[in-house]
Amino acid sequence: MPKSTQYQSKESDENGVIDWSDEENQIWSELYERQIPLVKERACQEYLDGLDLLKLNEKAIPQLPDINKVLMEKTGWQTAEVPALINFGEFFRLLANKQFPVATFIRTREEFDYLQEPDIFHEVFGHCPLLTNPAFAHFTHTYGKLGLAASKEDRVYLARLYWFTVEFGLVRAKDELKIYGGGILSSPGETIYALDSDTPLRNPLTVIDALRTPYRIDIMQPLYYILPEFDHLFELAEMDIMALVEKAKSLGLFSPLFPPKEKKAS
């Protein structure tokens, strides 16, 4: 998560409605139009089903109360308006209360293809469709409760599990690989790269491996972990994940599959 941001979240009115500018709605529309044909071919069916349920506005940034209505009916979840950046503690607190944090800003044209901060396109288009799914919703809720109770050190390990599942997870659907990670589904470059490129490794998911795998947020991923089937998220949620965190700590991290980040000259 970046330490600072140029972005400022917008506040909603008493009805939860945000007054987006024409330019902001135009950026959403162009992002949506570019991404939708890519995910139709590559996303898992559970995501596409959620997309159908949410009926996202193609031409304007969706209003969160409309999304909340569907989520509440399907899984008991809600979205929560948050600033552009929140800390781990607040992140876990929200998930533990079945509230999915959505930063209410959208990227600028200068960062149209990539930005480090999770904007409303990433959160709503990338993640909210799957929050209509019971397996994904249950796993995310369980993860939030674990993180809320965890130590600062253990939260760093849990962050890796989230990264390799909720953000950058692949899933086997019959004989095909599909995408369910929101970090991939909201990025056109990574949507293609994750499935079509020969460059990254794609390994079966085991929790202990994910907990031990370093990652960088500012590069195409060198490694993706594959769920054996989507409903395996139910099984993951029932594992003793904190015992696996202790085991991961004793075993140590794997060697990074990427070069260290270059430090900016001061």
CATH architecture: Orthogonal Bundle
Estimate nothing, just give the exact number of structural domains: 1
CATH class category name: Mainly Alpha
**Mean of all residue-level pLDDT scores:** 96
Number of strand segments: 6
Flag low-confidence runs. Answer: none
CATH level-four homologous superfamily name = Aromatic amino acid hydroxylase
Alpha carbon gyration radius: 18 Å
Q: CATH topology, which one?
A: Phenylalanine Hydroxylase
Could you tell me how far the N terminus lies from the C terminus, measured between alpha carbons in angstroms?
21 Å
Largest sheet properties: 4 strands, mixed
Q: What percent strand?
A: 5-15%
Q: Helicity range of the residues? A: 40-55%
* 3D shape: globular
**Number of DSSP helices?**
12
- The helix/strand order is HHHEHEHHHEEHHEHEHH
What structural class do helix, strand and pairing data support?
alpha/beta
Oligomerization: single chain
Strand order of the largest sheet: 4-3-6-5
Binding site for Fe cation: 122, 127, 167
Pfam family, one: Biopterin_H
Cofactor: Fe(2+)
Protein name: Phenylalanine-4-hydroxylase
How would you portray this structure in words?
The protein has 266 residues and is an alpha/beta fold. It has a single domain (22-251), classed as Phenylalanine Hydroxylase (Orthogonal Bundle). It is 48% helix and 10% strand. The chain is built from twelve helices and six strands. Strands 4-3-6-5 form a four-stranded mixed β-sheet. It has a two-stranded parallel sheet with strand order 1-2. Strand 5, helix 10 and strand 6 (223-227) form a beta-alpha-beta unit. Helix 6 runs parallel beside helix 11 (232-238). It is globular and about 50 Å long. The two termini are 21 Å apart. Its cofactor is Fe(2+). Keywords: Iron, Metal-binding, Monooxygenase, Oxidoreductase, Phenylalanine catabolism. InterPro entries: ArAA_hydroxylase, ArAA_hydroxylase_Fe/CU_BS, ArAA_hydroxylase_sf, Aro-AA_hydroxylase_C_sf, Aromatic-AA_hydroxylase_C, Phe-4-hydroxylase_mono. Fe cation binds at residues 122, 127, 167. Residues 1-266 form the Biopterin-dependent aromatic amino acid hydroxylase family profile domain.
